């Protein structure tokens, strides 16, 4: 399949340049069905007097501590959602994710939430779905969504990746992550009906030795794409070297948002790494069992 679409990710979102979506491999029968589409966002926390409110302490991207005093209501909501949004003294919006009880870390630039406890959520790129029906990392294409524009000026490409779940998301129901309340309002104003014909490309399964979710598989994939200079059977590539090669691969894929850089398990990245694995593997005989 080759389709033209607006670039997505934070670098490409809003760009007027059209990119060709890469040919899809390993999915012989995509699912075409009518999907109920809704949207969600993360509510910001509300500041409070230090003597009255509750304190959230974040570790930022520079490993420094940031303290927020918020209302009890905001604190409970943040604990429930495991994500908090605040504004620092310089007026910058900061997004934090609770990794453990009382332990919060700042999310990467461009991310406004966390999905599946592993995936940095990017607005207008990631969706929540029933992952017992549609697996994590699967590609979703909605032709009607191409060029739709919301309050922040960004246009959608019509391509999304399944990166989250939801307690009320079951069966043929997708929930688009939009990040902010004003974009959510724009979604309600712009989308006149909630049902849209949707094509889903399930994440292909690959052999364990090609699975990018393990060190050896990721090494093999990045060697095959030319982003890692190592012998084909190399298994002892240093983590730092592997990460540098991964980021180089991610930067070469304009559909991958920068919030995913360095993370091979992130939904969009996993899709493109798996595509690279399928294409590299296609010329070899099937001699290994498929990874669980």
Secondary structure elements and pairings:
Blueprint (H helix, E strand, L loop, with lengths): L3 E3 L2 H4 L5 E3 L10 E11 L12 E6 L5 E6 L1 H10 L1 E5 L5 E8 L2 E4 L6 E3 L3 E3 L4 E3 L10 E3 L17 E6 L8 E7 L1 H10 L4 E7 L13 H10 L14 H13 L15 H15 L11
Parallel strand pairs: 3-14, 4-8, 11-13
Antiparallel strand pairs: 1-2, 3-15, 4-5, 6-7, 7-8, 9-10, 11-14, 12-13, 12-15
Helix pairs in contact: 4-6
Tell me about this structure.
The two termini are 27 Å apart. It contains six helices and 15 strands. Helix 4 (215-224) packs across helix 6 (267-281). Strands 3-14-11-13-12-15 form a six-stranded mixed barrel. A five-stranded mixed β-sheet has the order 5-4-8-7-6, covered by helices on one side. A two-stranded antiparallel ribbon has the order 1-2. Strand 4 (54-59) and strand 5 form a beta hairpin. With 292 residues, it is α+β, with helices and mostly antiparallel strands.
Task: Summarize, please.
By secondary structure, the protein is an alpha+beta fold. The protein contains six helices and 15 strands.
List the defining traits of the structure above:
292 residues, alpha+beta, Barwin-like endoglucanases, six-stranded mixed barrel, five-stranded mixed β-sheet, 6 helices, disordered N terminus
CATH class of the largest domain: Mainly Beta
The major β-sheet equals: 6 strands, mixed, barrel
Shape call: globular
Strand content: 25-35%
Give me the CATH fold name of the largest domain. Answer: Barwin-like endoglucanases
What CATH architecture of the largest domain do you see?
A: Beta Barrel
Please list the strands of the largest sheet in the order they lie side by side.
3-14-11-13-12-15
Mean of all residue-level pLDDT scores: 84
Distance between the termini: 27 Å
Derived from helix and strand composition plus strand pairing, the structural class reads alpha+beta
Contiguous uncertain segments of 5+ residues = 1-9, 11-16
Number of strands: 15
């Amino acid at each position: 399949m080759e389709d033209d679409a607006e670039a997505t990710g934070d670098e490409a979102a809003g760009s007027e340049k059209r990119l060709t979506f890469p040919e899809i491999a390993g999915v012989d029968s995509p699912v075409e069905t009518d999907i109920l589409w809704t949207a969600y966002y993360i509510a910001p926390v509300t500041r409070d007097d230090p003597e009255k409110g509750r304190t959230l302490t974040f570790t930022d991207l520079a490993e420094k501590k940031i303290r927020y005093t918020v209302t009890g209501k905001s604190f409970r909501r943040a604990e429930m959602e495991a994500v908090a949004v605040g504004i620092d003294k310089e007026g910058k919006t900061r997004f934090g994710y609770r990794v453990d009880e009382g332990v919060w870390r700042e999310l990467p630039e461009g991310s406004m939430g966390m999905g599946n406890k592993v995936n940095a959520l990017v607005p207008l790129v990631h969706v929540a779905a029933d992952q017992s029906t549609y697996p994590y990392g699967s590609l979703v294409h909605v032709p009607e969504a191409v060029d739709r524009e919301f309050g922040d000026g960004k246009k959608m490409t019509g391509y999304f990746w399944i990166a989250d779940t939801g307690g009320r998301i079951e069966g043929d129901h997708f929930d688009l992550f939009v990040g902010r309340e004003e974009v959510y309002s724009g979604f309600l104003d712009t989308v006149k009906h909630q049902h849209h014909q949707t094509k889903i490309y399930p994440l292909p399964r690959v052999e364990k030795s090609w699975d990018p979710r393990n060190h050896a598989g990721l090494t093999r994939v990045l060697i095959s794409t030319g982003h890692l200079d190592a012998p084909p059977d190399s298994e002892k590539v240093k983590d730092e070297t592997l990460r540098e090669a991964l980021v180089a691969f991610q930067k070469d894929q304009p559909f991958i948002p920068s919030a995913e850089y360095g993370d091979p398990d992130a939904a969009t990245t996993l899709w493109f790494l798996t595509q690279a694995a399928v294409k590299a593997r296609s010329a070899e005989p099937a001699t290994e069992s498929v990874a669980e």
